Amino acid sequence: QVWRYRGPRGWRVARWWAGDPDGMAPGAPLGEAAGMGSGHWSEASYGPELMTPLIGWGANPLSLLTLEALADLGYRTSPA
Predict the structure, then answer these.
(1) Each residue of 10-20: pLDDT tens digit?
(2) Residue 52's closest CA among 61, 60, 44, 41?
(3) Whole-angstrom Cα distance, residue 79 to residue 75?
(4) CB 40 within 8 A of CB 30
């Protein structure tokens, strides 16, 4: 089973990222790492990103997906 994130702002970015602006995707896929559950973005879908399960060497940027998901949770954010 693939767990998915469906918050409206984050999901909108996930649809754009997947090339699915009409919203056919069932949500942003969440990934798992050993012992970490599924509370992170899918590494396979989003590559190295701050909120994927594994922090790699090099850049692990905070993406617009994470920023908008934080806004879904009530945080004030700015894409600037």
Answers:
(1) 888 888 888 87
(2) 41
(3) 13
(4) yes
Distance between the two ends of the chain, CA-based, in angstroms? 35
The C-alpha R_g of the chain, in whole angstroms, comes to 12
Phi and psi, residue 66, nearest 5°: -65, -40
d(Cα 67, Cα 24) in Å, to the nearest integer? 22
Q: Which residues pair with 4 in a beta bridge?
A: 29
Angstrom CA distances, 43 to 4, 26, 61, 74, 75, stand at 13, 17, 13, 25, 24
- CA dist 8 and 1 (Å) reads 21
DSSP 3-state assignment of 37? Answer: strand
pLDDT digits 0-9 by tens, 21-79: 676 777 888 877 666 666 788 888 888 888 888 777 888 889 999 999 999 999 999 87
